[in-house]
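Data availability excerpt. The first of two example chains:
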Amino acid sequence: MALYGAAVACLLIITIIRNEIQIWGGRAATVSAQPAEPAHITTHICSVFGDPLPYAVVYVGGRVAQADSTGLVELAGLSPGRMEMTVFAGGFQPLTLEVQLEPGANSPVIKYDTGLWPESFMADFHIYYSSEQRALLGILGFANGTAEPIYVHRAVLHTPQGQAIADLLDTGGGFEYFAGLSSKIRMVEEPRKALLWPARTWQPGEFAPIPGVFAEGAYTLEVHWGSEAEHNSGQYQVLRVTSYLDFKLSGNPHANNK
């Protein structure tokens, strides 16, 4: 700590001397150039799906800052210029990008194509209720952050009480729907029906409306996915994601993320 304090003190003294006064041959000359206005970063840290990542950590210009519970991070007093910015979040791959910091406010976009990839496989799942259609609607997407293709076999929606409502892939043409969203995604029939999801591919979508009367509460999506070997053997990994149904909310849950 003593060494760190001494180094900071030396830097402070050098900065003051350079910015305020120059001494040559015993004469003092006021420096005319004014220091550049510092740069400030204000942005939301999000995944490739645009979901905020609470408490993500940002490292840039030798400085470290942590996002709040909404993914918002603010960092002031940075030197303008081009530098690397690295972002860390639990369960996600570190992201490093080059940013050009201008004097004053800066808001680098860390979302969608520039967002964080999952370490492995991730499902994007949000539900809401449409009173006009009297149906349960929702957003469904998958991201494969690995270097190998994976197979998505099932995506079963459960009520807050644990009752299965529907397989969102096997009903309403879900398999065909996702295979039609991207030329990279394929539907396979053998040895069982699944979506062949390529490496480093993310794709958002929606699931077909589910008519009926539904109660508010936490709904769970159970996704069965696996490697080629796991798909061939029928031994899938299971991922569970929860989304809370609130009748006061509707529309795209990503719309309010800046």
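And the second chain:
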Amino acid sequence: MNTLLICSYLHDVLEDTNLTRDDLINKEIPEYCVYIIELLTKKDGQSYLNYLSQVKGSYYAKTIKIADICHNLKTSKNSQKDKYLLVLYILNH
């Protein structure tokens, strides 16, 4: 299966579930995919700008985050749109 597809499907799994890195490895998710998923996971106490910098450093993580933000723009309330547009600007510059 394609790396981008695997990571896209699983990009929120470490934030939104009790699954861990080791759980993903044990479920035979390739380690390089787990690494990308970890990049897409904002850590407790991590600033959002630091998180975006981390994401921006990986082609796969950046591509997935941009797609996620574009989806959020289509489905979010107007109050969130400025935030999402700023994130897109940061990731693209």
